[in-house]
Design a protein that fits this description.
The complex is a heterodimer of chains A (240) and B (195).
Chain A (H helix, E strand, L loop, with lengths): L6 H13 L4 H13 L1 H14 L13 H19 L4 H11 L2 H18 L10 E6 L5 E8 L4 E6 L10 E7 L7 E5 L6 E5 L2 H7 L4 E7 L13 E6 L1 E2 L1
Antiparallel strand pairs in A: 1-2, 1-9, 2-3, 3-6, 4-5, 4-7, 7-8
Helix pairs in contact in A: 1-3, 2-3, 5-6
Chain B lengths: L2 H13 L3 H23 L2 H18 L10 H24 L19 H6 L6 H7 L3 H13 L3 H8 L3 H30 L2
Chain lengths: 240, 195
């Protein structure tokens, strides 16, 4: 039977799927149908949005601390791999091609020495503020995270295409009380991120700020200390 | 800023690789999702496993979320519930447990203290709750048992000691009535809110 020809039937099965009454094999078959058909997915989303409001009546229960630790353990290796995409081992492979074992050893010792002496630890942010700068189509372009205690801002670029522009995007905080915008620096592109220490003066302007803005500036950024080009994006600051 | 907007910002930041944002997202949402797991799975250790697996899936799929999926909390609830239901089915089969043993009768009794009654007597402005109140008692019970305990048609059939067709019919009629009622109420709200 072609379920896709019967919207009513799809609706019924979607509701039963969200409710949880379908047997395992039927669930799996329906999930395959969801992958194929947008209308099936939409029927499921409709019933999820309706029925999941029932969970509002479930009393919260704090999970044990060990669960977060276990989650962190499983997602951290992924992050570490992403951070070390500059691969020492690619260079090492090159050295192996030379067949000079002792040279390789000396590199390894040097690497170990320097990595223990001068290793750069990833900054652990205590997140106080976060802002997601989005395109008009609600696609995230940059995510800015601020740690007010450590005086740090971390901005991660989510966009891949803006790199081609001959302009710079500059990030500004609009302080409360109508004070003039304060630059937070030029924005990175293509999945890159920057971490920057903020002065006490800038931190004061960030405290209580409700909006970040992005202006389009000549390459290298505004030379006046204030936005000179048009404001391309704004984003609300979420206090955490 | 609303809670929904905060969750959206945190999820987007998590999609960009921010563990700090994901940690905050976990702090805010885990208690509710853990309660959902506990309600469906009953066993504490199973609920812990499913919560952990669900958040790992949320981390990896954070960039796939879009507003068509409903709220962030709804999306996270869906991931967690489906994982809990799959886990329950797999483990009950594996351990040859009698699904009827897991039914929490206290949830569906007529006492005013039980969660079903509390839910139904709660926020009258909630459209869904208002609509559930209009359903026949059988339909109401079947829908709640299925939703909160992940029971299949087969188990519901045994529980109510009726034919499979009867249970399916209760669910189908319940769902049809709900949809009609919710759509009608939604249309009314839209009309009254228009200038």
């Amino acid at each position: 039977m072609n379920y896709l020809k019967s919207p009513e039937l799809i609706d019924q099965i979607a509701a039963a799927y969200v409710l949880g009454t379908l047997k395992t094999l039927t669930r799996k078959r329906f999930e395959r149908l969801m992958v194929q058909s947008q209308s099936v997915r939409e029927a499921v989303w409709y019933w999820e949005s309706q029925l999941h409001t029932l969970d509002a009546f479930t009393e919260e229960e704090k999970p044990p601390e060990k669960i977060w630790a276990a989650i962190l353990k499983q997602i951290k290796p992924v992050i570490q791999r992403q951070k070390s995409s500059f691969s020492f081992w690619e260079n090492f492979t090159f050295l192996r091609g030379w067949g000079v074992f002792t040279t390789a050893c000396s590199f390894i010792f040097a690497f170990l020495f320097f990595s223990t002496q001068f290793s750069v630890q990833p900054i652990q942010l205590r997140l106080n503020q976060i802002a997601v700068i989005q395109s008009a189509q609600h696609k995230p372009l940059w995510v800015a995270s601020v740690d007010l205690q450590q005086g740090l801002i971390v901005v991660k670029a989510m966009n891949e295409t803006a790199e081609q522009l001959e302009k710079s995007f500059e990030l500004w905080v609009l302080p409360k009380g109508g004070l003039p915008p304060q630059s937070l620096g030029l924005l990175p592109f293509g999945g890159q991120r920057f971490e920057r220490a903020l002065s006490v003066n800038v931190l004061k302007k960030l405290e209580g700020a409700e909006t970040l803005a992005v202006s389009i500036e000549p390459k290298g950024g505004s030379s006046t200390g204030l936005p000179t080009g048009p404001i391309a994006y704004t984003a609300p600051v979420v206090e955490l | 800023m609303s809670q929904a907007e905060i969750l959206l910002s945190l999820l987007r930041a998590s999609a960009s690789g921010s563990v700090e944002a994901f940690s905050r997202l976990y702090q805010i949402t885990a208690p509710k999702l853990f309660a959902t797991c506990r309600k469906i799975l009953k066993r504490h250790d199973w609920a812990e496993d499913v919560l952990q697996e669900s958040f790992i899936k949320i981390w990896h799929n954070a960039s796939e979320y879009h507003s068509d999926r409903g709220s962030v909390m709804g999306w996270m609830t869906a991931i967690t519930r489906y994982r809990a239901i799959d886990f329950l089915r797999a483990h009950k089969y594996h351990h040859k447990l009698d699904p009827l043993d897991s039914i929490d009768e206290s949830f569906y009794g007529n006492s005013l203290e039980n969660p079903l009654q509390q839910a139904l007597s709660g926020d009258a402005s909630n459209v869904l709750m208002g609509c559930i109140n209009t359903l026949a008692q059988d339909q109401k019970q079947v829908l709640f048992m299925a939703y909160f305990q992940g029971l299949t048609y087969d188990v519901l059939m045994k529980k109510f000691n009726v034919h499979l067709g009867t249970v399916k019919s209760w669910v189908r009629r319940g769902i049809e009535s709900l949809k009609k009622c919710v759509t009608k109420n939604f249309d009314c709200e839209e009309k009254t809110s228009m200038p």
